[in-house]
Specification:
Layout (H helix, E strand, L loop, with lengths): L1 H7 L8 H18 L18 E3 H7 L10 E9 L17 E9 L7 E7 L6
Antiparallel strand pairs: 1-2, 2-3, 3-4
């Protein structure tokens, strides 16, 4: 029981821990949906940091396997160029070094704070 309590100790500031579990599951499904795509199929980047943000509807118009039907959660996507050596450093220069996709999941009723999920794409992963 102690191990279970430790696992959920960080969830004390949210209304319902099951929202976190459900949101994480939905995020995993979204990330699996984009895993079938190649680097050159991911939405294009612009040179300006912060302009590579997509709503779920915008992202699903490009990547058709994205599911935007759950009305309890919102999904937003951000695509950035990053260096494969330093994937946490945004480098939206003209040369694609790699693409970092950040999925932010929030609950509409405020039951959880934003949860962030990441995946990386290498320019070598093309058709």
């Amino acid at each position: 029981i102690t191990g279970m309590l430790n696992a959920f100790s960080g969830l004390k500031d949210i209304k319902k821990p099951e929202y976190t579990v459900q949101g994480s599951f939905l995020a995993m499904k979204q990330m699996e949906a984009i895993s079938k795509y190649y680097y050159n199929q991911i939405p294009p980047l612009t040179a300006t940091v912060g302009t590579n943000n997509y709503t779920c509807a915008q992202f699903s118009a490009i990547i058709s396997t994205i599911d935007c039907t759950n009305t309890n959660y919102t999904f937003s996507w951000q695509v950035d160029n990053v260096s494969m050596a330093t994937p946490n450093t945004v480098n939206n220069a003209a040369v694609d070094l790699g693409k970092k996709i950040t999925l932010t999941v929030t609950r509409v009723d405020g039951g959880i704070g934003p949860m962030l999920f990441y995946t990386l794409y290498s320019p070598l992963s093309t058709e």
